[in-house]
Specification:
It contains no helices and eleven strands. With 125 residues, the chain is mainly β.
């Protein structure tokens, strides 16, 4: 059974950093692309990243507004994915979720499946 558990969120001042963790179980990270998306109440879900390989495709996607500030990495031995977030801005405030990800060529967007409970990130100005 696929399970993803996010942690590491919190309250940070603008310009600060956080590192989110995503512990995966029920599958092997090696064979999947893992991404992060964020959700603000009343707004559309926003894909933040999608990194890795799946079904013969390789992904290395970051949302434009986080490029150069956020970096996703993984420790396959620990079956864990990380999102290092630097130079945080108030507009980064959201609940962050990790999930299996893929690119939907028909819809022209990144899709996310099997996400966890999420972790709240709040950036104060």
């Amino acid at each position: 059974q696929v399970q993803l558990v996010e942690s590491g969120g919190g309250l940070v001042q603008a310009g600060g950093s956080l590192r989110l963790s995503c512990a995966a179980s029920g599958f092997t990270l090696d064979y999947y692309a893992i991404g992060w998306f964020r959700q603000v109440p009343g707004k559309l879900r926003e894909g933040v990243s999608c990194i890795g390989s799946r079904d013969g495709r390789t992904y290395d996607y970051y949302l434009d507004s986080v490029k150069g500030r956020f970096t996703s990495s993984r420790d396959n031995a620990k079956n864990t994915v990380y999102l290092q977030m630097n130079s945080l801005k108030p507009e980064d405030t959201a609940v962050y979720y990790c999930a299996l990800c893929r690119y939907d060529v028909y819809g022209g967007s990144y899709e996310y499946d099997y996400w966890g409970q999420g972790t709240q990130v709040t950036v104060s100005s």
